[in-house]
Amino acid sequence: MKPSLTMKLGEVELFEFKTVSERVADTRTEISLKEAQKLDPEVVLGDSIGVKLDNSEFGRIAAQTAKQVIIKRCAMLSATSFTTNLTYEKANL
After folding, report:
1. What's residue 83's pLDDT?
2. Burial 57-75 (b: 16+ CB within 10 A, else e)
3. What pLDDT, in 10s, does the model give residues 10-68?
4. Which of 20, 12, 16, 56 minimizes the C-alpha distance to 38?
5. 3-state secondary structure of 39
6. 25, 24, 60, 26: which is closest to 34 by C-alpha?
7. What is this structure's pTM?
8. CA distance 69 to 47
9. What whole-number distance in Å separates Cα of residue 11 and Cα of residue 25?
10. Strand pairing report for 11-21 and 30-32
11. What is the CA radius of gyration of the chain?
12. What is the pLDDT of residue 72?
């Protein structure tokens, strides 16, 4: 599962990744080629495709937790980027 955050709207989307296969043995991890092509016409056997999950399946607390994790990760990446740029600028002095 992979969360995604729309910063302007503050919405959290959850995607479950499944492997495209000819014969589906496990519906939790696999999706048929026919169903996958409804989501993405260019998908081929063996690809991994993200299937958007309905957020109503998750409770309010779980959705808020996912949102906080994403925001924290974005802040960490921003801080890392700032530190890297600062180090680069200092080296060029």
Report:
1. 58
2. eeeeeebeebeeeeeeeee
3. 666 777 889 999 999 988 889 999 999 998 999 999 999 888 777 666 677 777 777 78
4. 20
5. helix
6. 24
7. 0.51
8. 27
9. 33
10. parallel
11. 19
12. 83
